[in-house]
Structures are given as structure tokens and as C-alpha cells.
């Protein structure tokens, strides 16, 4: 089928490339000229395993193209997938302005019957509004219908998650739309759950918010573990054997970040409030996460007289390994606090420093300074304190002994529970992590 994809971020680009890989003819549209030029040159504007390889393969085979010319892409498309951002507004609601722009562009350009598929995460009822909006502005006499097809990929493993998705959710209001989506996905050989549009929209929020809740629950229990001298890793292990709980997402840490969990929890909370309902569970997840992100910094404040002039090694800037995305990353909550306190930060991240540098340029920032380094060793050498924010392999491979060898004061605050407490203690490192005893 002839498919157009609006937006070439994590969702749109990966979807487009995977549709091409499965035999469709795909045109990816973005408003960002630089992104489109990069993609045409075979370079992915985002860091995702296997993505560039599939981009090049399909570009050379002529099954995918990239353009800013939405008219050409949309006018004779059989289906148009919308994968533009739906960021958080200051009140927590989802900003639908990018969706509205694409909807308007579609309405003004489509010249044949077309299924519009909303892949972006949107509040329940949005698909209805998009359909009405497109019909209101439709220029040519063609049939358009809207379907919901929320995306569940995780950044860092986006290609794998798309080609081997646990399920594909399709939300439609007619047999025609359902058949069309089934045809698009027929070569994927994955379980398909077909529901109404509103249920599909809700499945996305309910799934993300449940995972966020699971993370916040474990972090809440971890904080209590510290007080009652229990060990969260042992607790999680013991829980994981129960099939009703499941073994995934039981890891305590510095809190969730990224472009989805933070905004999707707040958006559902906002939506519930709009309907006069208080979504207490999700609200609790949001509150716990907010405090969790800076918990280690405030723990360190209790330990130190000052950060002024001290060398603080920061290991990891991105919100998780495998991505260069900084959105809602714990580093962004902690680094301003350290800078305000006068620290001399030496930050290491294997892929995230360039993005971070645009927000915090090298040199003086607030009362402190920030320097970007290329190896963990450069960050740790002669450091007085270290914070671990992301569990990159390059960071996990630092041995406990190396912290005590390289740092002036081997004092480590680990937001990812990378090390065994006993190993760090044995190596002479003062080690603070989440939900575990400092000494064992
Ligand atoms: P993103 O910000 O990485 O990408 C959005 C892209 O859309 C940008 O490249 C932007 O230039 C482009 N764009 C904006 N207006 C446009 C227009 N009029 N025409 C064409 N392109 C336009 O966003 P993302 O992370 O891919 O997320 C997209 C949506 O998918 C969001 O609703 C998000 O919640 C949801 N989602 C994201 C993930 C994830 O892991 N990132 C996972 C599942 C769902």
C-alpha cells in the first residue's frame, strides 16, 4: 500500500521504516528540513539500534523516501499515519496543536479515499475530533476515516519493539477502516487487538500509566526498605516469582523519565479531572516520581557541608541507555541543583553530551561549571563525588576498584543500583543506592 507518515521522530520514522521493510511504499514527511536532508543521506536523526541499516536498505530499494513536501506525500496515499508530538502543556494536558496542523494539511490535500491513522498518544476522544476537523476542512470530495493505532515501542529498542511487538492495537469505527489496517499489518504476523477508537486511545494511556505506577510503587517500597533495613533487590526478586505480579518493571531507581511516562501520567490525570474524577493511583505515581528524581541529591546534601568547587562526576545524562533523548531525564533535575550549589561537574555520556551541551554549554553555569568528557575515567579522576544517572554498559563496566583508584574521595550515589553493595564496600567505596543498606 501507499503509506505516508507525518513526523519522523521515534514513532514516525521507526513506523515508516518498518512499513517499508514489510513491503509497503512509504513517504515520510517532516517539517524539519535538516532532519529530512540527514535521512536522505542515510543518517538517522535519532539514535536507535538497527534503524540506519534499515533506512539505507529501504532507501536504496526505493521503498521509502523522505520529504518536507506534504502535498505530494498525502494527495494519493492509501493511508496516512500521524506520528507527531503531543507534548505536555504547563497544566499537564496534552498539546494537540501539531496533530491539528497535520489534520488541516491532510484535509486540504487528499485527493483519494484515505485512512488517517493516529499513532501519536492522544487523550480519549481526540480521534473523534480529528475526524470532524478533517471533514470540516476537506477540500476534495473523497472519503476519509480516522483510526487509532497507538504505539508501544520503547526508545533504544524501537525497531525490535515494532517488528516484534507484543500486540498491535487497532481502534476503528467501521469495517472498512479495520480491513485497511489489517491489510497494512498483515505481513507483521503479530497479535492484533481490534477495539473501538476510544478504547484504543485508553489502552495506550492505561498501559503507560500502569507501568509508571509499577515503577513508582517499587520506588516507594524501596524508600521504605531503606528505613526498615530491608533490601529492595531481594524484595523485587521475591515478588518476581509471582505470575500475577510479573518480573518486569520491578527495579527501583531514580524514577522514570523520557517523553512518555511523565507526560502520559499527567495527561490522564488532567483528563480524569476534566470529567470530575480523581485518578488517585496515577496521581500517587506522579508524586512519588517527582521526589524520587532528586532523592540522591538531597541525600548527598545531608552528607556534605558544601559542593562548592568540588569535582562532581556525572555518569549518564540520557533518560535511559540506548537513546540520546534527554526528555525528562533525571540528569536535568539534578544538574541544575548541583550547579546552583557551585559544583564543578564533569559529565560523561556515550551519546547524550551533544544534546545536553545545547542546554548547558561547557564552562560556567549558575554558580558552578560543567565540562563534558569522553570517558568515565576522565569524569572520575580526582572527583570528590559521583552520581550515576543512566545504566549505560560503558558505565556498568567500571569496576568498584576503579572508583576507589580514580576518585579523590570514593563517594558514589547510584540512581540505578548497578553494583552490589558488598562489592563497592569491599573496594573501599562509600556507596549510596536506592532501597538498600549502605553497608552490608
Ligand atoms: P518526536 O518529537 O521525536 O517527533 C515528532 C516529529 O514530528 C518531529 O520530527 C517534528 O519535526 C515532526 N512534525 C511536527 N509537525 C509536523 C508536521 N506538521 N508535519 C510533519 N512532521 C511534523 O516525537 P515522538 O517521540 O516520535 O512521539 C510522537 C508521538 O508518539 C507522541 O504522541 C508520543 O507520546 C507518542 N509515543 C512516543 C513514544 C516514544 O518512545 N518516543 C512511544 C510511544 C508513543
UniProtKB/TrEMBL annotation:
Q: Which SMART domains match?
A: UDPG_MGDP_dh_C
The Gene Ontology terms for molecular function here are: NAD binding; UDP-glucose 6-dehydrogenase activity
For this entry, the protein name equals: UDP-glucose 6-dehydrogenase
Keywords for this protein: NAD, Oxidoreductase
The annotated pathway is: Nucleotide-sugar biosynthesis; UDP-alpha-D-glucuronate biosynthesis; UDP-alpha-D-glucuronate from UDP-alpha-D-glucose: step 1/1
What EC number(s) would the UniProt record show?
1.1.1.22
List the catalysed reactions: UDP-alpha-D-glucose + 2 NAD(+) + H2O = UDP-alpha-D-glucuronate + 2 NADH + 3 H(+)
Give the record's family classification: Belongs to the UDP-glucose/GDP-mannose dehydrogenase family.
Protein's organism: Anaerocolumna cellulosilytica
Q: Which PANTHER family match?
A: UDP-GLUCOSE 6-DEHYDROGENASE TUAD
Amino acid at each position: 500500500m501507499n503509506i505516508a507518515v507525518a513526523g519522523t521522530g521515534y514513532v514516525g520514522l521507526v513506523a515508516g521504516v518498518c512499513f517499508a521493510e514489510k513491503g509497503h511504499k512509504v513517504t515520510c514527511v517532516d517539517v524539519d528540513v535538516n532532519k529530512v536532508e540527514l535521512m536522505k543521506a542515510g543518517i538517522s536523526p535519532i539514535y536507535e539500534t538497527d534503524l540506519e541499516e534499515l533506512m539505507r536498505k529501504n532507501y536504496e530499494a526505493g521503498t521509502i523516501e523522505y520529504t518536507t513536501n506534504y502535498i505530494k506525500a498525502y494527495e494519493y496515499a492509501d493511508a496516512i499515519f500521524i506520528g507527531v508530538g503531543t507534548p505536555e502543556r504547563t497544566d499537564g494536558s496534552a498539546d494537540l496543536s501539531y496533530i491539528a496542523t497535520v489534520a488541516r494539511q491532510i484535509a486540504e490535500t487528499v485527493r483519494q479515499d484515505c485512512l488517517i491513522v493516529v499513532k501519536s498518544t492522544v487523550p480519549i476522544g481526540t480521534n473523534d475530533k480529528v475526524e470532524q476537523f478533517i471533514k470540516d476542512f476537506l477540500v476534495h470530495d473523497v472519503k476519509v476515516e480516522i483510526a487509532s493505532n497507538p504505539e508501544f515501542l520503547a526508545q533504544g529498542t524501537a525497531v525490535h519493539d515494532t517488528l516484534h511487538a507484543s500486540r498491535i492495537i487497532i481502534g476503528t469505527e467501521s469495517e472498512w477502516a479495520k480491513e485497511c489496517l489489517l491489510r497494512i499489518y498483515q505481513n507483521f504476523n503479530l497479535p492484533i487487538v481490534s477495539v473501538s477508537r476510544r478504547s484504543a486511545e485508553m489502552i495506550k494511556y492505561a498501559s503507560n500509566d500502569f507501568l509508571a505506577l509499577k515503577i513508582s510503587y517499587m520506588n516507594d517500597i524501596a524508600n521504605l526498605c531503606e528505613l526498615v533495613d530491608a533490601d529492595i533487590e531481594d524484595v523485587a526478586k521475591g515478588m518476581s516469582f509471582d505470575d500475577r505480579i510479573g518480573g518486569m518493571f520491578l527495579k527501583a531507581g531514580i524514577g522514570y523519565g523520557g517523553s512518555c511516562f511523565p507526560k502520559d501520567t499527567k495527561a490522564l490525570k488532567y483528563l480524569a479531572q476534566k470529567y470530575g474524577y480523581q485518578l488517585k493511583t496515577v496521581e500517587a505515581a506522579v508524586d512519588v516520581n517527582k521526589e524520587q528524581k532528586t532523592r540522591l541529591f538531597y541525600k548527598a546534601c545531608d552528607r556534605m557541608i558544601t559542593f562548592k568547587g568540588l569535582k562532581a562526576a556525572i555518569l549518564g545524562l540520557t533518560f535511559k541507555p540506548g537513546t540520546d533523548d534527554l526528555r525528562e531525564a533525571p540528569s536535568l533535575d539534578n544538574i541544575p541543583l548541583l550547579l546552583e550549589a557551585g559544583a564543578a561537574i564533569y559529565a560523561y555520556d556515550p551519546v547524550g553530551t551533544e544534546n545536553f551541551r545545547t542546554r548547558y554549554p561547557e564552562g560556567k553555569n549558575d554558580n558552578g561549571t560543567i565540562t563534558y568528557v569522553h570517558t568515565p575515567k576522565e569524569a572520575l579522576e580526582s572527583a570528590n563525588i559521583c552520581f550515576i544517572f543512566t545504566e549505560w554498559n560503558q558505565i556498568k563496566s567500571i569496576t568498584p576498584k576503579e572508583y576507589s583508584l580514580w576518585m579523590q574521595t570514593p563517594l558514589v550515589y547510584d540512581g540505578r543500583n548497578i553494583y552490589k553493595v558488598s562489592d563497592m564496600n569491599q573496594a573501599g567505596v562509600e556507596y549510596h543506592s536506592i532501597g538498600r543498606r549502605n553497608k552490608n
